[in-house]
Amino acid sequence: MKWIEAKVIFESSAPELAADLISMIFYEFGLKGVSLEEPGMNPEEGWGDNAVAQPAHYSVSGFFPAEELPDSRKNDLMEKLSLLEKQNEILSKVLFREMDEEDWAESWKEYFWPEKITDTIVVKPTWREYKSTGRELIIEIDPGMAFGTGTHPTTALCIQMIEKYLKPGDTFLDIGTGSGILMVAAARLGAKQVWGIDNDSIAVKIAEENLVLNKIRKSDFHLTHGNLIDTIDQPFQVITANILSEVILTLLNHVKQVMKEDGILICSGIIEENAQTVITKMQSIGLDVLECREKEKWVAIVACLPKQHLA
Questions:
Q1: CA-closest candidate to residue 81, choices 14, 8, 15, 4
Q2: pLDDT (tens digit per residue) in 246-287
Q3: Which residue did the predictor score with more confidence, 92 or 1?
Q4: How far, in Å, CA of 171 to CA of 237, rounded?
Q5: Cβ–Cβ < 8 Å for 242, 155
């Protein structure tokens, strides 16, 4: 299978925000993840021996199956980037490169390193080494074509909120599970049953592999292919949705159907300027907003369903 890398090299006075805005464009095209480069990037000392050379420019790369990026979609991508440049004073150029699947499968791995998400939780790509202090919870992850290694702020925020709000014995549902990393985190933190749903059948397969890799028993997890909660027929005590704001707003129309009384909903993937819209929608359907946490211009929102709103 052939892949096309679309690499956006850019300059901006606010490079972190620019990288997030460019990433959002790729996500709108249906990509599960992107790779980022920045001048001076370097893994933490002692986290591996295969560090790559420092890049000279900021860039964001998205990877498309070759048959899914005809000239018309390339033009759409260029138009969205051009509009972004005008609105946010970003200078950019796009380089397209065709690559074989084997090259693609290895090319993005060099950018992922172990990351300490909380005081006790470390997410470690399977191909990296990490020396544990002995009291840490290590999550092994190989995102494959689903991406999601825990390094992105939206995923890190979700893991932090799961650690804070999930109680041992809770049931857990991850909507848009991707690589399954949030399911693994919930299971390792004591959830008795973890469920995941994704509209990408490849993601479902990879999530299962990562759960097994982390020694989660098959009897303790359930994965399904579907859109949002379409195939979910039972309520859960903790639910996560690390997806785009626009999709979260759609999800909120029906999410109470799968929430237990006093159930917790953790939503991430929300850029700062969209946070209030999501909060307002949550409140309008009867959810109590418990907490908002921000990291690098991304926001996670935690809400609860009070008992009186179950009817």
A1: 8
A2: 999 999 999 999 999 999 999 998 989 899 999 999 999 999
A3: 92
A4: 5
A5: yes
Task: Give the residue from 129, 130, 125 showing the smallest Cα distance to 109.
Answer: 125
pLDDT band at 311 (very low <50, low <70, confident <90, very high): very low
Contacts made by residues 287-294, CB under 8 angstroms, sequence distance 24+: 287/252, 287/256, 290/264, 291/161, 293/157, 293/160, 293/161
CA distance 265 to 251: 11
Assess contact for 178 and 207: CB atoms under 8 A: yes
Percent residues over pLDDT 90 in the chain? 54
Closest alpha carbon to 213 in 240, 180, 242, 186: 180
CA torsion angle for 143, 74, 90, 82 (degrees, to 10)?
A: -150
How many helices and strands, by DSSP H and E, does the chain display?
A: 8, 14
Residue span(s) of the chain under CATH 3.40.50.150 come to 144-309
The arrangement of secondary structure in 2-110, i.e. its CATH architecture, is 2-Layer Sandwich (3.30)
Fold of 144-309: Rossmann fold (3.40.50)
**CA-CA distances (angstroms) from residue 106 to 36, 69, 138, 208, 244?**
15, 21, 23, 21, 27
Where does the chain hold its CATH 3.30.70.260 domain(s)? Answer: 2-110
Cα 304 from Cα 311, distance rounded (Å)? 15
